[in-house]
Every structure is written in structure tokens, then in C-alpha cells.
Amino acid sequence: MIILFLNCGSSSVKYSVYDWDKKRSLAAGGVERVGIAGSFITHERPGKEVFELKKDCHNHKDAISLVINTLTDKEHGVIENINMISAVGHRIVHGGKFTKSVVADKPVIDELKNISDLAPLHNPAHIMGIEAAMSILPDVMHVCVMDTAFHQTMPAHSYMYALPRSWYTDYQMRRFGAHGSSALYCSRRAAVLLGKNVEDTNTIICHIGNGASCTAVKNGQCYDTSMGLTPLEGLIMGTRSGDIDPSICFHMMKKLNMAPDEMYRILNRESGVKAITGGRFADRRDIVEHAKNGDELCKLAIAMESYRIKKYIGSYMAALGRVDAIVFTAGVGERSPVIRGKSVEGLENYGIVLDEQKNRDAVTKNAESCISAENSKVKIFVVPTDEEIVGVQDIVAIQAGTYDVYTKFRYIFEDKEYRNSLRDEAFIEEVKKKPFLLNAAVNLPDALKDASR
Where is 169: in which H helix or E strand? Predict the structure, then answer.
């Protein structure tokens, strides 16, 4: 059974292909600059060199067609033909009322369109991707994997806002969160690394990328999360403001005679670290590099972002009562020792002690790492997220009629012996060039276990 998983952005289509029968990742990659001149695909396979091809993609249908052509290519492909694909999964940032993954039929798509304004940077692109994929693969099951589903276990005191009751009953004004599949995966992998049952494990998941969130996971279930009605609330992000005083919006709208849509655009696209650096940088790699060279605004951006993460870690420690592990994940969380380090700096009195060398050495998206010191009561892990495998297993279970909400469902990555073949192969190749990566890595591929002793 071959599952194609898609994550469609406004100008990108990321994909992964999984062979469920062999429990093996076959390929992963993405098409960038969709609808923009200079479109290209990057295609990765276990044990093979990365394949890249430039090809103009005017829309999502062109991009998904390019993905299919690459997957079935005689030289670079991983499947013989399009008919081998059994189902297609679609990552959905804002799933609204849905508590689990669902088949993408017309009522589901209509509901996603209805709530598109709650995730304006994501949901419209997801819908374009679903409709494009359905036109190319009309005879297979399409499944929407809701990023908000994991957060549906939050208690009312976590998800409610102190607003007029009718706003909730009539318009569903409540906290929905995002990055749920990532939080689910990482919290369960943390339990594995701790050698604990999921039901007995409390974790704080710091998903730090262009979009960023913190999630408090209590006994394996979401207890609270930093993103709110939309993915705008919470942490400082690449271009999103995160938490601010709402009065700022009304004040500046009056001062600048600004329409609500323009304010919404600014908060989502022109704020965050991009705004702190004077509109120059949203990529944290650029910010860290310029900060090293003395750029004061870049230094401020790092300090502000890290401080906000630290505040959420502290508040969730209080909310959970006991924390077994803090997990950093996503692009920045997996590969930015600077931001990780500053986010836990000064928390030693709370049992959180960083191993600075291991933190510096954990700079790969292909291996799980432990970056806490031996005497740290709270473990600090770096876990490369894998939202796709969550969706893949949901799809397989839906087809088999065995699927249920995550609190009643067990995933294959909850097993200690679970491996991601694509990442293992990539990590082995990385270690050949950067042996220091072994310093912090845990749960090593068999081919590297002797080398780590």
C-alpha cells in the first residue's frame, strides 16, 4: 500500500511517499516557487543523491503533476506507475471542529472553505492542493489530516476566551491551536526516549519554525497550546506577531486609517522577527549570522523570540505540575542551537540543565538528540518532527475501518524499534562528513551504533 502525503502552501507543495506494507519511507521532497518564475522540485530517496529539476509550475495542479512524474520516473522514481498510489493525505493547518482525520468529501471541503479566514496563510492553499490532487488522482481516497485535532482534548479552561458567551456558542470563538500532528508525534517519541508509557508522560513541545507554537502535553494528551483561534497567537514567529495587546490594533487602525484586512495582513505577514529586524529577515539563519557580526536588531530578535519561548515553557511547567521532557522540533527547533540555548537559559533551578556542547552538536534534521546535561531532572530532546507518518497511519486505519481519535489509537512510532528509513540513510551520510553529530544523537541506526561507542 503506497500513500502519498501532501502539504500544500501558497507557493509550495511538499510531499512524502510511504510504503505501508514494508513500513518504509520511499521518498520525500517539495516543489518550490509554485506560481512564481523559477519553479523547481527537490526529490530525496534513501541512499541516493538528491535529485533536482527546474520546471515552471503555474499552479498547484502543475506542481502535483511534477511530483507524480518524478515519483514514476524510470531513473529517479520510486513507484512504477500512478496506479500504485492507494490514497493521498493532505495536511490541513486549521481543521475547525474536526476531532480527527476525515475523508475529503464535498461537505468537508466546504467546511474548510468556510473557515479559511482562520488560517489565511495556509487553508486556501490546502484547498487548492486538494482540488488539484483530486483532479489528477480521482479514483483514490483523499484524506484531510487536521493539525488542530490533537488539541481537541484541551479542557474548557484552556480553550475558552474571556469573551461574550454568544461569541463562542454562535461563532466558535475559542482556542484551536495548530501543529497538532507534530505535537502528537514528538510527545510520543519523547515517551519512547524516556522509556515511559505515553499515559504517564508530561512534555512541553516547542515547535519552532516560520510558524511557532508551544504545547503542554499532560499524560499524553494536549492540555494547552500557545496558538489560538488562528495560528497568529502565542510565540513570536517568522512574520507573525504572536501575543500582543489587542488595543494596539485598534489604536493603529485609527492612526493610519487602516482597514481590518490590512491590519490582519500586517500581523500575519509583516510582523514577527521580520518586523524586529526592520523588515529585513524572517529566516533565523540570516538573523543568527548577522547577530554574530554585531547587528543589534538581529540580536534583539533572537532575545525577544527566545524570551517568549521561555515564558511559555515556564507557564506550562506551572500548568502541568511535573515535566518529564522539553522537546524542540521543526526547522528552527531542530537546527538552531542559539535559539534553543537561550530558550532554556537560566532555568537550572527548575531542573532544566542544558549540555552546551551537545546542544551545539545537535544540528541535523535526521536524528533524535538529547541535549540536556546528565544532572538535568527534565530531559531536553531535539526530535525531528514527522507529521506525515501520523497522517499515513490515519489513512491506513480509515481504509481498514480501525481508525479512532488519538486518545484511543496507537501509532507505530510509539514502538521503541520504530525507524524512519529515509532519515536513517541521510543521517549515516551526514555522519561520514560530520562525526560530531553522534555526540548528542540517541536511538541511532544500527549501522552507526558501533561508531558511537
Answer: helix 165-171
131 vs 90: CA distance, rounded Å: 11
Residue ranges, the chain, pLDDT below 50 = none
Q: How far apart are CA 445 and CA 453, in angstroms?
A: 13
Summarised one tens digit per residue, pLDDT across range 189-207 is 999 999 999 999 999 999 9
From CA 243, how far away is CA 307, in angstroms rounded?
Answer: 13
DSSP letter at 47? T
What would the grid cell of residue 295 be? 547587528
Please determine whether the domains at 2-146 and 156-382 fall in the same fold group of CATH.
yes
Phi, psi of 37 (to 5 degrees): -60, 140
Dist CA 3 CA 48 (whole Å): 21
CA angle at 359 for the pair 356 and 362, rounded to the nearest 5°: 155
State the pLDDT at residue 451. 60
Residues labelled as active-site residues: 147
The domain segmentation of the chain, as residue ranges, is 2-146, 156-382
Cell for 37?
518564475
**How much is the pLDDT for 69?**
94
Please report the pLDDT score of residue 453 as a whole number: 53
68, amino acid identity: I
pTM: 0.93
Cross-sheet strand order for the sheet of 369-370: 221-225, 212-218, 203-208, 325-329, 379-382, 369-370
CATH architecture, range 156-382 = 2-Layer Sandwich (3.30)
Residue 142: the pLDDT is: 96
How is residue 209 annotated by DSSP? S
For residue 402, report the phi and psi dihedrals to the nearest 5 degrees: -115, 10
Please tell me the predicted confidence (pLDDT) of residue 417. Answer: 87
Tell me the per-residue pLDDT of 37-66, one tens digit each, with 9 for 90 and over: 889 999 999 888 899 999 999 999 999 999
Check: CB of residue 308 under 8 Å from CB of residue 214.
no
SS (H, E, C) 51-112: EEEECCCCCHHHHHHHHHHHHCCCCCCCCCCHHHEEEEEEEECCCCCCCCCEECCHHHHHHH
The superfamily (CATH) of domain 2-146 is ATPase, nucleotide binding domain (3.30.420.40)
